[in-house]
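SEVERITY: medium
COMPONENT: batch folding queue
REPORTER: lab tech (J.R.)

DESCRIPTION
The queue accepted two submissions in a row. Attaching both inputs and their returned structure tokens so the on-call engineer can compare them side by side.

ATTACHMENT 1
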Amino acid sequence: MADGAGAARRDLTEPRYSYGGDEFVFVELAENMSLSVNFRAMAITNRLKEEDLSGITDICPSNASYMVRIDPDVLHPDRLIEHLKELDAEVGGIEGFELQTRVVDVPVMMEDPWTHEALMRFRDRHQDPEATDLEYSARINGYGSKDGFVDALMGSPWMVTMIGFVPGLPWCYQLVPPDEQVEVPKYVRPRTFTPKHAFGFGGGFAVVYSVEGAGGYQLYGIAAAPVLDVSQRLKDFRDSIVFPKPGDIFNYRNVGREEFDEITAKVDDGSFEYRTRPFTFEAEKSLADPHAYNREIKEVLYGDQG
């Protein structure tokens, strides 16, 4: 059943407000992730940013929650919580929620040699040591082949719902009805190595590993361009070392080795820029008819390519 606007109401629970020492207030909107509850978190935190209240030093939206950092000498946490309750009542459901965002083309080479080498090193930590991560994920999600599974991953865009785990790592949730959401468990025991820029999947989230390190998500491929640039050498990183932002709409696009090499060469010489287009995201339209709205999103991103 599609996650329509009516279903959005059923996803929501009474928010839980918690203190984190003197400087933090944590708000849990729901126990389970869904697009509707994530849209609600963005609606509340965006409204809070617009208000620019004195004493608030940071606002961090997450999948089904958010956290606010304050200067307690300026703004008492109890006063903040009372205000957040008012905002919550004003926002209500997600009716009318619009997000000024951008749509981004994210090239990924699936089944690349680097992540394949990494995942094969750790088969003893995997649920199915005889299969690759892609083969295992396709099978448990009911796909007859890994190609069909890849088509599903690349067929619809994804919302960046939060940034975390390591700096710059985007958590992405696909804009499809709940019964089409891919779900895959993490490794039985985590790897001690994951290549930088690996395209992975765990639970219901796709990620691009921003840095090399440990990890437990299934590995499917590798992104051609970085999501984190601490040197800020590339144009897309001049305002921030982190490219993705909560609310971005990523369209992961499967590319071959030739295009992958062309993109990485541009990254190396500093000329690479992500293909992006501004977009006004309407939550109700997305939940009411995800496939039609996704076609509209892709038209905005690629329509001028003919």
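ATTACHMENT 2
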Amino acid sequence: MDDLLGPFRQSLESLDRLAAESLFEQAVERSSPLGAVESLVVPALEQIGGEWQSGSIALSQIYLSGRLCEELVERVLPASDPDRKHQPRSAIVVLSDFHMLGKRIVYALMRASGFELLDYGRMEVDELVARCLRDRIRVLLISVLMLPSALKVREVCAGLQASGGEVKVIVGGAPFLFDPQLWREVGADAMGRNAADAVTIVRQWMDNMP
């Protein structure tokens, strides 16, 4: 599979849909749908995320790569596939802010990596807590852009705990990048520096969830 990884990543970066589809199909034939996702799609997206952090590719390339991978994964792992049913119920939301791009990128990469999650759009604290409890969410991904919104994560975590919800919260966004300790101060369980981090963290959590 290693021989496919480089060409697949390059096809995503250049938005060469036909090449990406061909390489992905080869990976499925060699392994399985889930094996192709885990051995080809996920590492390719992680590498692209690293390249964006180093400034060698544009943010739009991450987003469009994620959308293309999302389509590929959807073909071989539809929502009804048993491999998706073993995941914790997850949701993603923009808390208070109106900047949606970060959430869209994470959402696309999570789905491209084989995860099913609910897209809550934009919500305020009370609505978000109530919705998580109603949907029995186990993993909540929160995206913010502004510091006041980041500080509201503390209210979300407190509300979930007070209601007895066993929800793990992962946060991301500019305020958490500027202050690497902020996620701990607001009571989150983890912070993702990029979309690939979110995928990695949720996968690690899954191993320890009943």
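NOTES FROM REPORTER
The mean pLDDT is 86.
No errors were logged for either attachment.
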